[in-house]
Amino acid sequence: MINRSVLGFSGESPFSNASQTEPREKTLARDAQVSPSHQLPQVDRTKVDPKILEAAEGMEEMFIDYMMRVMRQTVPKNEMDLESPATEIYRSMMDSENSKKAAHAGGIGLSDQIIAYLQGRSYHLPQGHAAPMKEKP
Questions:
Q1: Does residue 114 sit in helix, strand or coil?
Q2: Cβ(60)–Cβ(110) under 8 Å?
Q3: Are 123 and 60 within 8 A, CB to CB?
Q4: Is 98 exposed, middle or buried (0-12, 13-18, 19+ CB in 10 A)?
Q5: What's the pLDDT score for residue 74?
Q6: 3-class DSSP state for residue 38?
Q7: Cβ burial, residue 24 (10 Å; 0-12/13-18/19+)
Q8: Which residues contact 8 (CB under 8 A, 6 or more apart)?
Q9: Prediction pTM value
């Protein structure tokens, strides 16, 4: 017979600190503290250049569409389903439209990250006013 406590199957959670007398540490990801450098950016979309907003939402739309396409490919094919080339085209078009609507309705936060990145890098300057280049040492 295998000794379960040797393998770590003592019946307690592997994340519990039963051997310590101190209070239990927060071990779940949702309980972890977020460092200030890893917080999501707060973007005021009313003050963003419309071209940057359009580009960011377009990029998020493409990402969501690609994610939906790859997720559909993971579903195994079955002889009993009523799939045809026409239904595959319809689903692809429906996924693209749903991706577009999701991206323009707030999306998953990718467009906010892109906007914050572009604004932080001064890509929103008018044409002909390039940001100064850093000299190489």
A1: helix
A2: yes
A3: no
A4: middle
A5: 93
A6: helix
A7: exposed
A8: 14
A9: 0.59
CB atoms within 10 A of CB 3: 8
Query: pLDDT averaged over consecutive 10-residue blocks of the chain (137 residues)?
Result: 49 50 54 61 81 91 95 88 89 94 88 85 57 55
Structure tokens at 64: 């969501």
> Which amino acid type is present at position 39?
Q
Tell me what pLDDT residue 60 has: 94
How far apart are alpha carbons 135 and 137 in whole angstroms?
6
Angle 83-86-90 (CA atoms, 0-180°, nearest 5)? 95
Whether the Cβ atoms of residue 122 and residue 131 lie closer than 8 Å to each other: yes
Residue spans of the domains in the chain: they are: 44-76+83-120
DSSP structure class, residue 133:
P
- 115, 53 Cβ separation under 8 angstroms: yes
For residue 35, CA distances in Å to 27, 38, 108 come to: 16, 5, 21
Per residue in 47-71, pLDDT tens?
888 888 899 999 999 999 999 999 9
